[in-house]
Design goal:
The complex is a heterodimer. By secondary structure, chain A is an alpha+beta fold. Helices cover 57% and strands 10% of the residues of chain A. Chain A is extended, with a radius of gyration of 39 Å. Classes of the chains: A alpha+beta, B mainly alpha. Chains A and B meet through α10, α14, α19 and α20 of A and α3 and α5 of B.
């Protein structure tokens, strides 16, 4: 029902039993194992040595399994999304690791990947070569002839069309010992072979540069270009076949995909177990485990340990400044709301768990931010179906359940506000309407007309006042529990009194709710409150002026409360927004139906479906975020700061599978 | 444009939609750039990145809402426009300003916070919730702008 009380404990035992003890701890997940301190409370050093293991075999196998799983991921048979992760018993997982030849599969994966990559590279290289050679099909000599002799050099390349003739003329002018042969041409360039005497090599180089000649390097083969192209084609056909075989191989290996995942997780447990040794210490024959656990699990731990080995479990003192890790535990009805608390972070060990206090407010605000029974029903049905037909991991169930409850509350809110997919009373079927014909059955507030918006706003602000004051009540309750009676009275309840007195005075002075004749009494209540505030709020300061100064300054805190309460007006804005956008979608769909001949109903249907789905998603997201924000910023700040670290017990962590 | 009452009120509607849309476009764009960077390293985070990128998008919707309400008030949607007075038209025009301006500015800044939040998510995906809430802090002021615009539009008498 709150933040569980934690003990720091020490488990002592014989080294021969260490294996079983760790296995038990990992199975139970009851203890968060921390590093053993070498020196305890100033006692003599016990000469404890670290028990860290040197072998890294598990790390290596996990890395290999990760590789194989990544490689086969795209080839594995797809699991339907509602099936979730494979779930099996611990025994069958351990059975898989015995019977399944994972080492063989990993080796096959490695060699397959090697040849697959090599073949793929060859295909890319050959395709590049085809691109290069296809322009040179008419090359008048085989590819392997030497590119230079003792006296000449061959230049193969392309040149812009306009420059070809001039370059040819210039080369002829330069020397008689020059040959130019055109091989091919396309729209912009001419492809040609130039043979130049080595004597004029430098001069020729200059000319080539000047006329934008681009030399190409053709591959060397003992055949003509055409023959080479034919050969490449044959080789590519072969490779295509090999690739198909690779693909089959991938598919057949991927049949073991699920087994690989199981083995992976089992090895991760072993890896965790090996690593946890680094935190342990011991002598030649004994071991020490230190860590945190919940008080109420103590019996379970001791009884479990008794069955497997002779051990001693002792309470030890936490180190100075060491905070107990936070283990939240709530009733089933409140449990889904832990996901809201987790979003903010954990309270510290000395603070109260806000989950049970925020639950009702969170869900009411969420419902009011949507205020549409149609959307509420949709949300409820979707989340219900998710829970019923999809196998979800335990961690995400909380959020889904939360949204499901949110859907229910939204239905109620929608009922009172007359929100049904944004329909107006004129558009709605007659059976939904009340006797007057302009409002829905059960509708209390019409948020979009007359004084409706103002009523909604007052409702939102009223809820804000209750929420903020309730935050102060929680603060006082917790302080009393901590036996800080004076702080509870002066920091919590005095504020509550003061805010209520101010409110009462405001209401009485304006004659709303409270008759005006009470204004005089209320005024004295306020003045008394003010005096009490000024006199007490500075009590922790030293010296008269500091006490008085802080006392007067504390009145400024009222501005903060006012800001907090005004912040709840967002509930009204979001609630109205949802309805108006839904109404807009209906209007646009109506326009489409009227204005587009014949097929108007199709467009109208599309607009309705997409429009309402989009509005539901965005509004629900907004409702969640803003409702959460009201908890975090306006509510939590009254009684907690947070900053606790989560309790992370040593357990079987699963990535791919679920252990029943 | 200052002679026609209809034009003045339509200008108000246009302003609300345009300012809100511009704020969101810039904001979602900023967040999207950061998001693309995160995706390039960790494509598996796409869902979470998309969620955070979408957050500065609400301002566009609020602006749209404000504009639409004006169109409904002057009867432009699906029918003949009501013949409104010049003074009413200007009232509608000014009523569009709170949502327009707050959405423009908060959209841009929410985009910046969302982009920074995406960096936090890239480091540790457990930060998603916190990044979402931090980004939503900026949105408060767009919601307040929308609130006043809605209240004004509901209470202005169309004459």
């Amino acid at each position: 029902m709150a933040v569980l009380a934690m003990d720091k404990i020490q488990i002592l035992g014989l080294k021969k039993d260490l294996q079983q003890v760790l296995a038990f701890l990992q199975e139970g997940g009851l203890v968060q194992i921390d590093e053993v301190r070498s020196d305890q409370d100033g006692e003599a050093d016990l000469n404890l040595e670290t028990l860290a293991k040197k072998d890294h075999d598990n790390d290596y196998i996990v890395a290999q399994l990760d590789f194989a799983i990544k490689l086969l991921k795209d080839h594995a048979p797809k699991r339907p999304i509602w099936a979730g992760k494979p779930s099996l018993s611990f025994e069958s997982a351990m059975g898989t690791i015995q019977s399944f030849n994972y080492e063989g599969i990993i080796k096959e994966c490695q060699s397959l990947e090697e040849s697959f990559v090599a073949d793929q590279n060859e295909i890319t290289a050959l395709q590049t070569e085809i691109k290069l050679l296809s322009t040179w099909k008419q090359l008048p000599f085989d590819l392997h002839i030497p590119r230079e002799t003792e006296t000449t050099r061959i230049h193969i390349g392309s040149i812009p069309k306009g420059e070809y003739d001039s370059l040819k003329a210039e080369l002829a002018k330069m020397s008689d010992l020059t040959s130019v042969q055109k091989v091919a041409e396309d729209e912009t360039s001419i492809f040609a072979v130039f043979v130049v005497s080595k004597k004029h090599a430098d001069e020729a180089k200059l000319l080539f540069g000047q006329y934008k000649f681009q030399e190409v390097e053709l591959p060397i083969h003992e055949m003509s270009v055409t023959e080479r192209l034919e050969k490449i084609a044959t080789r590519l056909a072969e490779l295509a076949e090999t690739m198909e075989k690779h693909d089959e191989k991938f598919k057949s290996l991927a049949k073991s995909f699920e087994n690989l995942q199981i083995v992976h997780d089992v090895f991760v447990w072993q890896q965790d177990e090996t690593r946890i040794h680094e935190k342990l210490k011991g002598t030649d024959f004994s071991f020490v485990v230190e860590g945190w656990m919940a008080k109420l699990d103590r019996k379970k731990l001791e009884e479990g340990l008794k069955e497997i080995a002779v051990t001693a479990v002792e309470n030890i003192k936490a180190e100075e400044g060491e905070e107990a890790p936070i283990y939240l535990h709530n009733k089933r009805s409140v449990w889904p709301f832990e996901s809201v608390t987790r979003l903010y972070g954990f309270p510290t060990a000395s603070e109260v768990d806000p989950t049970p206090f925020l639950a009702i407010f969170f869900i009411v605000f969420f419902g009011l931010c949507l205020t549409d029974a149609g959307y509420g029903l949709s949300l409820f049905v979707i989340m219900f179906a998710l829970l019923k037909f999809f196998k979800l991991p335990e961690e995400s169930k909380g959020l889904i359940k939360l949204l499901m409850i949110g859907g229910l509350v939204t239905i109620v809110a929608g009922f009172f506000f007359g929100g049904y997919f944004g329909l107006t009373a004129e558009q709605a079927p007659a059976f939904m309407l009340a006797a007057d014909g302009v409002s829905f059955k059960g509708q209390l507030i019409n948020a979009a007309a007359g004084t409706g918006p103002l009523t909604f706003l007052i409702l939102a602000l009223g809820l804000g006042i209750i929420h903020v004051l309730f935050g102060k009540v929680v603060d006082g309750y917790w302080k009393i529990k901590q036996k800080q009676y004076l702080d509870a009275a002066l920091d919590s309840f005095l504020w509550i009194y003061y805010i209520l007195a101010l409110l009462g005075f405001g209401l009485a002075a304006s004659g709303t709710l409270i008759p005006a004749e009470y204004a005089g009494i209320m005024k004295w209540c306020v003045l008394g409150g003010t005096a009490a505030m000024v006199l007490t709020q500075g009590r922790k300061q030293k010296g008269f002026f500091a006490k008085a100064g802080i006392g007067v300054l504390s009145l400024y805190g009222l501005v903060g409360y006012m800001g907090d309460i005004l912040s709840y007006s967002r509930i009204m804005a979001l609630g109205l927004g949802t309805g108006i956008i839904a109404f807009a979608m209906n209007t646009i769909a109506g326009l489409a139906y009227e204005m587009i001949p014949y097929v108007g109903f199709i467009f109208a249907g599309l607009v309705l479906v997409f429009g309402h789905v989009m509005n539901l998603v965005l509004s629900a997201l907004g409702a969640f975020i803003h409702s959460a924000r009201l908890q975090f910023v306006e509510f939590f700040s009254k009684f907690m700061e947070g900053g606790g670290t989560e309790f992370k017990p040593f357990k079987r962590n699963c990535k791919y599978i679920i252990i029943q | 444009m200052f002679e026609s009452a209809l034009a003045v009120s339509v200008a108000g509607a246009a302003l609300a939609v345009f300012l809100g849309g511009a704020g969101s476009a810039i904001g979602v764009g900023l967040a999207g750039q950061a998001g693309a960077g995160v995706i390039s390293e960790k494509p598996e985070l796409f869902g979470k990145v998309l969620l955070i990128q979408a957050l500065p998008g609400t301002q566009g919707i609020y602006g749209f809402l404000g504009g639409l309400l004006i169109l409904i008030q002057i009867g432009l949607l699906g029918g003949e426009a009501i013949d409104i007075s010049m003074s009413t038209a200007w009232q509608l025009f000014y009523a569009a300003l709170p949502v327009g301006v707050t959405c423009l500015i908060s959209g841009i800044h929410q985009g910046k916070v969302a982009a920074a939040g995406l960096h936090a998510v890239a480091k540790d995906q457990a930060n998603v919730g916190k990044a979402v809430i931090m980004s939503a802090m900026v949105e408060t002021y767009a919601v307040l702008g929308l609130l006043i615009t809605i209240l004004l539009l509901f209470s202005i008498k169309i004459v």
